Fold this sequence. Notes:
By secondary structure, the chain is of the alpha/beta class.
Amino acid sequence: MSKRHIFLTRRDVPLPGWLAAFPDALVRGYPNGGEKIASGGNTMLWLHIDTHVKEPAVVVAEAKKASPGCAVVVLSNVTSEEEGMAVLEAGASGYTGALAVADVLRHIETVIDNGGLWVGPDLLQRLLVALGRRPGAQSKGNSQLDRLSQREREVALAVAAGATNKEVAQKLAITERTVKAHLHQVFEILKVRDRLQLSILINGLPKEAQAKILH
């Protein structure tokens, strides 16, 4: 059965990339209080957040309540680290710009269907750094690191704090190729799929995203 896509927006007309990606998608407004939109894993919600939305995390929570079991991807008019972390913490499975082209939207669908989380590549590194700077970062996830070797642990902590492979290599006096090999092993042992999931796991937040990682 093909996946059903629903775009939630306050716009009168959907942006071009939305229906170019999913021609059969439903476009509608935000759910009213207590309204049910869908349920189950065969529906994906694309939640448009414009600049007039003051509490995007609340809107995500309402969308999830109206569609239990459905993945929610936030399409933001103006992406930021703060908004990205807020919507992921509220349970969003993805976060990207509202003007994302059709190919990107279809790629996001594939990543999330395979259990991943998505943020746009332009935001990923900034979001990783911001996660590492949150109060209590790298304190709650340390028990997970007991399964790693000392070098794997060093690589994992550096990446979770937002370091690039090049920066990790310089810090640990190893090659970038070695960093990649250690990182691959870290992903395998901790059962995470990417740098964002690793950072969320080690930094101990957000709860909704942790549930996705450990599923």
